[in-house]
Every structure is written in structure tokens, then in C-alpha cells.
Design brief:
about 280 residues, mainly beta, Porin, 14-stranded antiparallel barrel, about 55% strand, globular
Length: about 280
């Protein structure tokens, strides 16, 4: 069973990471990559979509997300984010892990975001990405991503984000590189309870993909999200419930060949007390 899991893992990595032998990009949790182009639905995980969304964080937030890819324990995907706001701008610390003992990828990031004006938010994130296969060793690379969000009107928002623009080499002794990823997005807040957005994603050396999503909050306690990603023929959906300051989302994504991936998200916010 372990051998079968490893084979599936390697096949998935080949399909999702590379268009050639010498390039790859980190695994993405698509469910958490939504909301950056909204004033009503942006949360701490929106920095995975565009780091400039960090500028909208108003309170200390902590969030974790776990996903069992295609129902296989060897394909676990885990993410965690901490973010806080200060008078000098907002800061984040995030970590991502994918795989298991025989093969895994991880990334640790430190981010900074701030408002330039009522119309423009900017952000930058510094990343340390590593790939570990115990039989072969470890390879790692430093890189960064930068982004901006433009508030065109109170309801219409757009932005760009560039990950790893310098195409960092993965380790000193390999020819493999992390590929740059370019994103451009547009979102519209129809109301305080409904948002929809679309994002164009271009990986260097790969095909251009579309990520479209919507989010809906019929009442304060109930939250729903769904979306599709054309580049890997995947759709996802989730529903969340707010227990005071803790939101819990139950999620599912579906790949048309590889199957279902269940997940769970926990998001905790400590709201600042208003001064009298």
C-alpha cells in the first residue's frame, strides 16, 4: 500500500508541478486562495491569493487548513497563517506542508502589507521553499512574491501578484528551478453578503488557467464558498459556521480523474476593543 501511495504521489506531483523536467511550482490549496479582491470577504488566508490582501487585516488572526488529497494520507496538504495589524503596516507568518515522510514539500513565509491610499494596497512576502526526498536528499530555494490590490470603486476591486519573479534555482546541485507564477484578478462585491471573483494565472512554461469563485453569507454565522480551476480541471466547495470568534469550514474538492479531497479550515480572530 505504501508503494502504491508513493507511486500516486509522484504521478500527481508530475501532473501538478511541471511542464518540463526542470521546473515546478508549490502545491496550492485552492479553497483558501479566494477573497483577495473583496472588502467584505477577504480573510487572513487571502494572502495566498495576493499578498497585498494582508493590508486589509484589522485584527490578530490565526488560521489552519488541512486537506487529504484524493483520500490518500500520503497526499496531505496543510497550511497555517498568523497575521496582525500595526501602525506601521501588517505582518504575517505562514507555513505550508505537502506530502509525507518519503516525499514532502514545505514553505515558510514572512509577509508585509500596507495601504498606500484608500485606493491602493501593496504587499511583499519572502519565502523559503524546500523539497525533501530522504533517499536523495533535500533541495531548497529562497524567493519572494509581491502584489497590489486596486479598489476601483467600493464594489469593484482588481490586482496583480507575482510569485518568484527571479526563477530561483532549487538547490545548488540541480538544474531544477521554481517557476514564476503571474496572477491578475478582478472581484465584485454585489452586496455585503455576496461576492464573485475571477483570476487569470500564468505559470512560466505552462498553460494559462482561470480560477473563478463566489462567496455567500446569508447571515453572519453562515458562510459558503465555491469555485473552479481550469488549469487542473478541479472544482471546490465549502460551508462554514461562525462560533463567536472561531469560524469552521468543511470543504471538498473534486478532480475529474483523481477524485475527491476533503478538508477542514479553522479561522480565529481576536477583535480589537474599541476605545471609548
Amino acid at each position: 500500500m505504501k508503494s502504491a501511495n508513493l507511486l500516486v504521489l509522484l504521478l500527481c506531483c508530475i501532473c501538478m508541478h511541471s511542464q518540463s523536467q526542470n521546473s515546478r511550482s508549490p502545491i496550492v490549496a485552492w479553497y483558501t486562495s479566494s477573497g483577495a479582491y473583496s472588502k467584505n470577504f477577504s480573510d487572513v488566508f487571502s494572502i495566498n491569493n495576493n499578498i497585498a490582501a494582508l493590508a486589509t487585516v484589522k485584527n490578530f488572526s490565526a488560521a489552519v487548513y488541512g486537506e487529504k488529497r484524493f483520500m490518500l494520507s500520503a497526499l496531505g496538504l496543510y497550511s497555517a497563517v498568523l497575521a496582525t495589524s500595526t501602525s506601521s503596516g501588517n505582518f504575517s507568518l505562514s507555513a505550508n506542508y505537502y506530502g509525507y515522510a518519503a516525499y514532502n514539500e514545505s514553505e515558510i513565509s514572512i509577509g508585509y502589507g500596507r495601504k498606500l491610499s484608500d485606493k491602493v494596497d501593496i504587499g511583499v512576502k519572502f519565502n523559503y521553499f524546500s523539497l525533501l526526498i530522504p533517499s536523495y536528499g533535500k533541495a531548497a530555494a529562497f524567493n519572494f512574491d509581491a502584489g497590489a490590490v486596486f479598489h476601483i470603486t467600493e464594489q469593484l476591486h482588481s490586482g496583480i501578484n507575482i510569485y518568484n519573479p527571479l526563477s530561483s534555482k532549487l538547490g545548488k546541485h540541480t538544474a531544477e528551478k521554481l517557476m514564476p507564477v503571474y496572477k491578475a484578478g478582478l472581484g465584485y462585491d454585489f452586496s455585503a453578503s455576496f461576492f464573485t471573483g475571477v483570476e487569470v494565472i500564468k505559470e512560466q512554461g505552462g498553460a494559462t488557467g482561470i480560477h473563478a469563485s463566489f462567496q455567500y453569507k446569508p447571515i453572519t454565522q453562515i458562510f459558503a464558498r465555491a469555485g473552479i480551476v481550469t488549469s487542473n480541471h478541479l472544482w471546490y466547495a465549502g460551508i462554514g459556521y461562525l462560533f463567536k470568534d472561531l469560524r469552521v469550514d468543511i470543504t471538498v474538492s473534486m478532480h475529474q480523474q483523481l477524485g475527491i479531497s476533503p478538508g477542514i479550515l479553522l479561522l480565529y480572530t481576536i477583535k480589537k476593543q474599541e476605545k471609548e
